[in-house]
Amino acid sequence: MLIVQALYCFNLHANLKKGQFGNVHCANYKNDGITALVAVKKTNFEEDSQDLKQKFIEEAQIMCHFNHKHIVQLIGVCTKGWPILIVMEYCALGCIRDYLIQNADALDIHHLLEYIYQLSSALKYLEEQNFVHRDIAARNLMLTNEHTVKLGDFGPGLKI
Ligand SMILES: Nc1ncnc2c1ncn2[C@@H]1O[C@H](COP(=O)(O)OP(=O)(O)O)[C@@H](O)[C@H]1O
Ligand SMILES: [Mg+2]
Q1: What is the domain range of residue 114?
Q2: Residue 138 to residue 119: CA distance in whole angstroms
Q3: Among this protein's residues, is 135 annotated catalytic?
Q4: In the structure, what pLDDT confidence band is assigned to residue 2 with cuts at 50, 70 and 90?
Q5: What is the distance in A from the centroid of ligand 1 to the CA of 153?
Q6: Which helix (H) or strand (E) holds 98?
Q7: What is the pLDDT of residue 137?
Q8: Do 102 and 136 belong to one domain?
Q9: Beta strands 34-43; 22-31: pairing state
Q10: 119 Cα: distance to centroid of ligand 1 (angstroms)
Q11: Which of 87, 91, 157, 160 is 20 to 30 A from 28 (CA-CA)?
Q12: Tell me: the pLDDT tens digits for 63-94?
C-alpha cells in the first residue's frame, strides 16, 4: 500500500458525498511528476475521538488486502496530521443507487445482469479471502463507467 505522507499533494474538489464518519471528495493528486484523479475519504469528526479514528484507519487496513477488478482499489492512506485521508480509485459515475434512479429508463436487463455478475464475482473473491462485507447495498456500489461496478465501503467489514 502506498503511504501517502503529504496532505498538500491533494487538491480536494467539491464533496461527492457526506458520510457518517467521512466525507468523500474527488481530488487531484500531484507529486513527484505523478498526477492522478482519485477519490479521497476524509475524517469529519474531532481528532480526539480515538475509537472513531481507529475504525477509520481499519477500513484502509481491510481494503489494502484486496485486489479485484470489481472492488474499489485502495491507493493509500495519509495518517500524518489531521484529517486522516483514505485514498482510493475514483469511480466517475458515483454510487449505483443514484445512477439507477437517474437512468431507470435507459437501463435494460443486460446492464442489470452485468452488474449482478460483477458483484457476485467480487463476493466470491471476498469469500475466498474469508471476509464478510456486512453492508452490501446499492449506496456502497460504485460505477467507474456504465458497464463496470465496484464494491466499496469496507468500514463495517470483518475477517472471519
Ligand atoms: N471511490 C469512489 N469514487 C466515487 N465516489 C465514491 C467513492 N467512494 C465513495 N463514493 C461516494 O461516497 C458515498 C459514501 O461512500 P462510502 O464509502 O459508502 O462512505 P460511508 O462510510 O460514509 O457510507 C458513496 O455512496 C458514493 O456516492
Ligand atoms: Mg456507505
Answers
A1: 94-159
A2: 11
A3: yes
A4: low
A5: 7
A6: helix 96-102
A7: 97
A8: yes
A9: antiparallel
A10: 16
A11: 157
A12: 999 999 999 999 989 888 899 999 999 999 99
Do 28 and 78 lie in one domain? The reply is yes
Q: How confident is the model at residue 5 (pLDDT cuts 50, 70, 90)?
A: low
Compute CA distances 112 → 50, 71, 118, whole Å: 41, 17, 10
Q: Among 43, 99, 153, which residue has the most ligand 1 atoms within 8 Å of its CB, making it the best to mutate? A: 153
> What's the Cα-to-Cα distance from 2 to each of 75, 77, 96, 120, 160, rounded to whole Å?
6, 7, 27, 28, 26
Report which bound ligand comes closest to the CA of 16: 1
pTM (global) more than 0.85? yes
Q: Do 139 and 82 reside in the same domain of the chain?
A: no
Q: How many domains does the chain have?
A: 2
Cell representation of residue 100: 439507477
Summarised one tens digit per residue, pLDDT across range 96-146 is: 999 999 999 999 999 999 999 999 999 999 999 999 999 999 999 999 999
Examine the domain organization and report whether 8 and 63 are in the same domain.
yes
Nearest listed ligand to the Cα of residue 90: 1
Say yes or no: 109 and 54 in one domain.
no
Q: Residue 138: which CATH number? A: 1.10.510.10
Whether residues 105 and 78 fall in one domain = no
* Claim to verify: residue 72 and residue 9 sit in the same structural domain: yes
Nearest protein Cα to ligand 1, atom 4: 91
